[in-house]
Design brief:
- The protein is of the alpha/beta class.
- It has 2 domains: 82 residues, Transcription elongation factor, GreA/GreB, N-terminal domain (Helix Hairpins, Orthogonal Bundle); 66 residues, Transcription elongation factor, GreA/GreB, C-terminal domain (Chitinase A, domain 3).
- It is built from 4 helices and 7 strands.
- It has a 5-stranded mixed beta sheet.
- Strand 6 and strand 7 form a beta hairpin.
- Helix 2 runs antiparallel to helix 3.
- The radius of gyration is 22 Å and the shape is elongated.
- The mean pLDDT is 90.
């Protein structure tokens, strides 16, 4: 039980932009999606027999998904630890920094911003500080070697640059 409590109060690091994105989604769900699905349920109820009413069942299922997401977002917003990524110390790889790595096998450079799990999107150039690669990069300085266990096996990198993000 203590372990469950600990997990419930664990802070979630995120950038100001990531926090605003979550708040925006929560606001949209509460002000637009929730009332829309309630109206859809009412309209479907007027069609009679609910046991064979596909519109009603679809609307109720959608309502459950919306309520679940609202609950999840409220929890994440409440536990958010907002970090201004434009003001972190970039002498080491920390949350919010933009880290350039040299892949020791391919000799290609890749750049990632270290963000929280809610904001991570490899296609947009960000990874979670909780991912295997993110964890292995944290605390490193320029010139340090990084070994990371990836789905394709263990990969080796060298940190060649650490900069501040231009996004808060």
């Amino acid at each position: 039980m203590e372990e469950e409590y600990f997990l419930m109060v664990l802070r979630i690091p995120m950038s100001r932009a990531g926090y605003q994105q979550l708040r925006h989604e929560l606001d949209r769900l509460e002000r637009v999606e929730r009332p829309d699905v309630v109206r859809a349920i009412e309209v479907a109820r007027q069609h009679g027999d609910l046991s064979e009413n596909a519109e009603y069942h679809a609307a109720k299922e959608r309502q459950g998904m919306i309520e679940g997401r609202i609950k999840e977002l409220k929890d994440k917003v409440a536990r958010a630890e907002i970090i201004d990524c434009t003001k972190v110390n970039c002498s080491r790889a920390v949350f919010g920094t933009v880290v350039t790595l040299l892949d020791m096998d391919s000799e290609e450079e890749i750049t990632y911003q270290l963000l929280g799990p809610e904001e991570a999107d490899v296609k947009k150039g960000s990874i979670s500080v909780l991912s295997p690669l993110g964890k292995s990069i944290l605390g490193k300085t320029v010139g340090d070697d990084v070994k990371a266990k990836t789905p394709g096996g263990v990969r080796e990198f060298e940190v060649v640059g650490i900069t501040l993000s231009s996004v808060a």
